[in-house]
Design brief:
single chain; Arc Repressor Mutant, subunit A; two-stranded antiparallel sheet; two-stranded antiparallel ribbon; 4 helices; 4 strands
């Protein structure tokens, strides 16, 4: 048996603000230095990625990326300090949620399902 936990941060009226997709986009920007490259790695159109990030920035009322215009060396993007902080906090929160869900599964289902739940892997975190 496995459990799956989906961590999504929503507004007061339940509109999605931030989750795994935007997290992966921003993590890609941090790693690759480009929203276009991050979107491409995810198999997503740049325009969709740009829209997603703009929606998150509007919901949080702060910029998460800073773009540089192309030129001889090409353009790119970097995360703002708030963008870096959001990645760090979301990752820690998601990890804590998964650990809690794992413990709750053991508490409520360990005697119901005979198989042991596999330990959390890095992919689950």
């Amino acid at each position: 048996m496995k459990i799956k936990v989906k961590v999504t941060i929503c507004s007061d009226d339940w509109e999605r603000c931030f989750g795994e997709g935007p997290y992966q986009l921003l993590a890609g920007v941090q790693e690759l230095g480009s929203l276009r490259a991050s979107a491409q790695r995810m198999g997503m159109a740049y325009t969709k990625a740009f829209y997603i990030i703009k929606q998150v920035e509007a919901a949080l009322n702060c910029p998460l990326t800073q773009r540089t215009i192309g030129g001889r060396g090409g353009g790119g993007s970097v995360l703002t300090p708030k963008g870096k902080e959001l990645l760090t906090r979301y990752n820690a929160y998601r990890t804590a949620c998964l650990q809690s869900a794992h413990a709750l599964y053991q508490q409520y289902f360990s005697d119901f399902f005979p198989s042991e739940l596999p330990p959390l892997s890095n992919q689950d975190k």
